[in-house]
Amino acid sequence: MRVYYINNGGENGGPFTIEELKKEALHEQTLVWFQGMDDWQYAKNIVELKPFFTVIPPPIQRAIPKPETKVPIASSTIYGIKKSYFFLAIAFLVIMAFVLVLTLIQNSKRAEIELKNKETEFGNVQIELQQKESIEERIQDEIQKRIISENNNTRRKDSINARLTQIKSLIVDGKNQLTEAKKSLSDAEDFKLLRSENTKEEQLKSYQADVDNWKREIDELENESNRLYLMLETVH
């Protein structure tokens, strides 16, 4: 009995009998060899194997129409919207979101800058108020000083004027006393009653001392009056 060897492009298979070949996956291009052949041949070229590849039509049966299989067509819409419009809308939304975020950031920075400006303005106002308060305090201090100075000057003027009035009265009184002392001295010089020279000399010295004292006192009062008038001119 003839045995066959086959090769389907991989390892050789066999040996097989003709009946066993029917069970193998044999096709026209399968290489087949058996003893007596010079070289491998395609299965379709071997006479006894040709019936393996003869197509026997099936018996005629009533044709049953097969349901048409619709090839799914790639959808050109997303959620009922044309893809180009959908992606355009997505791009628009992304741009709007970016613009919104950028606007929020800018608004936040603007608000922060405005807050800092307000804080700076508030600080400047506080400084100005403090400066004004300081100036007002200095003005009030200066006013108080002037009031005190004016009061002091007024009191000083009043004191000087009172002293000048007193001095005038003292000078008038002193001049009257000087006149009396000069008269007493003159009377003592002209007195003709009997008296010793020592007594006369002592009387004359006494009256002369009174005259000198009143002159000196009047001079001192007049000098003091002159000084007070000078002081009065310097008091504003």
Automatic annotation (TrEMBL):
Q: Which residues form the GYF domain?
A: 4-49
Task: List keywords of the entry alphabetically.
Answer: Coiled coil, Membrane, Transmembrane, Transmembrane helix
Superkingdom field = Bacteria
Which segments does the entry list as coiled coil?
101-145, 197-231
Give the Pfam families listed for this entry.
GYF_2
Q: InterPro entries, from UniProt?
A: GYF_2
Q: Where are the transmembrane segments?
A: 85-105
Protein name (Swiss-Prot/TrEMBL): DUF4339 domain-containing protein
Source organism per UniProt: Flavobacterium muglaense
